[in-house]
């Protein structure tokens, strides 16, 4: 009744863009941060060398990755390799400051379809964990009033403390399964980011669900990355 194989007993949900609408806040904060950096480097937004940060850049290089991994991946895509670790950290921290202001102003709203799915999952006895690269996992869950659903949370703070590789490596999801006391084959991964879908596939989880919130070629890219199924909203997995 949950659209999952019978062997699945644990659901490992990404947070931003899967359960909550906060991926939009992240994307806007990244754009402001990177555009300011790129403009400063080029000599202004009207300079010939300035090329703005796009939604596709977010999807390709930043979405789902730990903060500083995303900074390095995007800068490398623009051929920028001379940035020191302190600058990488400053870019990431500046973005996070913007995100936290937006979270305080706008709130961390949950997708209604995700709330319906979480209620159905809990009623059916499916155990629930959140696995997110964000270091703001706790505040986002609280803002969206979703903490009561979550048995285990693996977030960016835990990933950094344990020295784990971020998505697309499967480490964070493997830790989530371990903390829930199951093998990967008994857990389903729910992701809106290509990096997260790749992580679920690399970890050999029992089922990988892609959630396409952006359209275009995203669903096809998710299938190519290893998604077993792609939906536009979680409640599409529920019976009509």
TrEMBL record:
It comes from the Bacteria. It catalyses: beta-D-glucose 1-phosphate = beta-D-glucose 6-phosphate. InterPro entries: B-phosphoglucomutase_hydrolase (IPR010976), Beta-PGM-like (IPR051600), HAD-like_sf (IPR036412), HAD-SF_hydro_IA (IPR006439), HAD_sf (IPR023214), PGP-like_dom2 (IPR023198). It is an enzyme of class 5 (isomerase). Its cofactor is Mg(2+). This is Beta-phosphoglucomutase. Belongs to the HAD-like hydrolase superfamily. CbbY/CbbZ/Gph/YieH family. Its EC number is 5.4.2.6. Keywords: Carbohydrate metabolism, Isomerase, Magnesium, Metal-binding, Phosphoprotein. It holds the Pfam family Hydrolase. One of its GO terms (molecular function) is metal ion binding. It comes from Gordonia alkanivorans CGMCC 6845.
